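Key idea: predict the complex, not the pieces.
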Amino acid sequence: MPSRYAIDTMLTTQYLQQMVQIDSVNPGLAADGVGEGAVAEWLYQTCLALGLEVEFQETAPNRPNVIARWVGTGGGKSLLLTGHTDVVSTANMQGNPFDGRIEDGRLYGRGSYDMKGGLASILGAVAALKADHFQPAGDIWLGFVTDEEYLSLGTDALVTAIQPDAAILTEPTDVQICVAHKGFAWLTLTTYGLAAHGSRYMDGVDAITHMQHLLNMITTLEQQVFEDDLHPLLGRNSVHASLISGGLGLSTYPDQCSLQIEHRYLPDLGADEIVQLWQDEIDDLTKTIPNFKATVKLDFERPGYEIERAAPIVQTMHHAFSQVMETEPTYMGMYAWLDSAIMGRAGIPTVILGPGGKGMHAAVEYVNLEDVFACAAIIAQATADWVG
Ligand SMILES: [Zn+2]
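Result:
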């Protein structure tokens, strides 16, 4: 590999295997999740052994971020290398979900692909820079964060602690440069009726039947409105029904019906505009349909993210990729949401690059070891170029 910084593949594999073998299931997603405490302790010790300054940042009881710093000699730009330490539930997995076994160049186990492979790339990159006696001018920060799979407590806390000039997030991208991802919003739509005995058609107002008009609106958005707006990397906006409830009993007109929905949207759209879209529809229906009454409520939102290809950190990543891989990089967008939106909102330009594999949140999960090494080499080069 024509990289200045030779990756120690044995050491990087060891890092990855040890992290996968430590259970860090997010307790927000699985009631029996043990959380990130043990893997944070392992990362703390590993960063110390690499000669970095390290501290914990508490994000919830026994769920700390690990923040490490390689102090620069001064005059350079600072860089954050970051990824999440939590993994999703193992309930659907067969065998030992944390065995970390290696077969045919793949390392298996929950979190190997999402995203301890990316964390191993970061550690492998730093180990390579250390082995080469690299002296950074700007600070190199490592941020290993909790809770990305649920509420992102980790990155929310991290951006209050440090303000690097740029960041590389190592979520899995199949060794492509990711420059955009979607946002999402959870909303509750409620229709209101009037409870009455099932025989009293002259008194009752059926809230569940009223919900059909809002369900129709979902179909209209999906089949007509959202078709027109296509992003080159992210497809289109989308909305779907998630959960529905209503009704009081078989012989009673339902007084209320609630529908929870999810929007996934392009970076140029915001949750406020989506709420307004629903409010306008409700206002129209209220004028045209007798006894129609409904409300819309925003429950949770996370914005999308996009960074220009001309941005300095993207250019740095592009050049490092070309140099190490001896080919031009492919650019991609992630349909799923990532922590980069929080960093973007905090004013930290962020680019995403991580290894390939399969089985994110699935019954069998693995990461390709060659990709982990390639990402480590690209990240080492990009880091050296950026911090000077
Ligand atoms: Zn992830």
